[in-house]
Structure formats: structure tokens, C-alpha cells
Amino acid sequence: MPQRIAVLTGDIIDSRRIADSRRLHDVLDDTLEHLASHHDGRYERFRGDGFQLAMPTAEAALDVAVALRAALVMHGEAQRWDARVAVAVGADAWRPDTPLAAADGPVFVASGQGLDALDDEAHLALALVDAPEDAGLALLIRYVDELIDGWSRHAAEIAHLRLWHDESQQALAERLGIRQPSVHKRLRTARWALLADTLAFFRSRLAKEGPSS
Length: 213
Description:
Order of helices and strands: EHEEHEHEHHHHH
Helix content: 40-55%
Structural class: alpha+beta
Radius of gyration: 17 Å
Number of strands: 5
Number of helices: 8
Oligomer: single chain
Largest sheet: 5 strands, mixed
Strand order of the largest sheet: 2-3-1-4-5
Strand content: 15-25%
């Protein structure tokens, strides 16, 4: 019986220009493994710099996309690392014990088509398979995408930490070995308050979407 799932399909931006490809792939694998484990999902990599992640917790789809891109940006040292990610959410018969290579349901198709449709200026997309197109959601996706595109490594790092740890600024400062005012500045630079509210909106919206909504 179909259940609502999220599928993220993506690839590394300008991967052929990245010198330390082994380290990049290690970071990508570690990040995808962590996200898949945390959300009871499954991931696979293909064509070297391509990847796909499917998970039954559809409402967390945007949080996962942002966490993935934040991890890449924060680890890119000599060069900026980032990814194009197309997210699709909807009803599908896929189960986490099924290999992704064999999955061809509507959500997988929509995610793959979304990635193909991304141009050089857009690095994030969202498709709701069971709902009509929504210009307001598309605008918010553009906002999140451009926000991430503007992150420095420090901004990405603090956003990544905040996504995983609901802690005070002082606790985050202790994790990073810096002073609390520096954490405050980095959170402001990352536009964390606006991003957190936007992600909360998407969690609520995606939890309500579906054939019966």
C-alpha cells in the first residue's frame, strides 16, 4: 500500500573541478548515511557525484536537503562544495528495505525530473506529487536556495550544528571552541532565525499534504 515519502535526488556542483574528490565523496557518504539512518531511510550514490535519498518522514524533506548542503559547504576548504538537490514528496509504494535502483514510482520520477530541470542558477527544487503547483512554495524554495548559496563555511557550520542540536548559543560556542558573541554573529550571518521559521513552515505544510488534504 502506498505511503507518503520524500525522495531527494542530487549531484555535486562542478564536481570535475574539485581536486580532493576522495575527501568530498567521504563527506558525502558520511552525511547521507547519517541522514538516512536518522530518518529511517535509504540512500545510494551513482555516477560518482550523483546521489539519491528516500525516506518515510516526508515532512522533514527540506530539513534534510538543507542539512546535506550545509555539510558540504562547511567541509569545502580550498574550494566551495555544494550540491543541486531536487526534492519530491508524495504517495509511493516504495519501502526502506527496497533498493533505490529498482524504484520507479511517481515520487522517484518527479525527483529525477526536478533535478534535470534545475539550471545553473537554481540548486534546490521541490515537487509535491499529490498537490497542484504552488507559487508561494516555489518562492520560498528560491529564498532558501539563495540563502544557502550565500553561506560562508562558518555560516554553513553554525546552521548545520543548529539543525542537529537544539542548544543555547553558549552550548554551541563550547562545541566550536569560540565565544558566545561569535556564535551570535554567525547565526545572524546564516540568517538562522528566518531559515528556522521557514523550515518549520515546510514541516507543517508537508505533514498536511497528501491525497486526502
